[in-house]
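Listing S7. Sequence submitted for prediction.
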Amino acid sequence: MPGDPAALQLLADVEALGGNLEAAGRAVDAVLARRPDAPRALLRKGLVEVALLERAHVTDRARWTAAREWIRRANAASPDDPMILFEYYRAFEQQGVRPPPPAVAALERAFELIPQSFDLRQHYARELVRARRYRSAVNALAPVAYSAHGGWRRDAAQRVIDLIRDLSDGAEPPAAALAPPTRPANQR
């Protein structure tokens, strides 16, 4: 069923996960030709565009804005999809710019919808640190930092908590607490 939108969406997602961005783009374009308002297809189109810009080290703001427009359209089609909300926020990070307030609000909403996501918790906690709301950041990180299954994320969350635990809300944040959590090369 080469024209089935569900099969094409799956193909686009698999190709993107495999790093075959051009093939993913062709598959998602085929989905959008059949279902122009499909939220996950719009999201995948935006993610492919963002990944292509990131891979080519593009700095042109207009091109990044155009890529994020696909994700914004996905959000308009499905306003409470946490993946879409989170990826909108992440697209700014991938560009290498500080996410603006609407993107931070999208992250916060995504966190409200799926608080069990360690990845979301860590990104949201970093925004709380940036906003100098340390008690809230510690509360957001605690489930990660004290999880028996947290792995490298647990270690990263514990480091941030150690840095901010004794700070009063409003105090200058330590630069190390604002660094994005990164997975060590030898860990899954």
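Caption to Listing S7: primary sequence and predicted structure tokens for the chain studied. The chain is about 70% helix and 0% strand. The chain has a mean pLDDT of 95.
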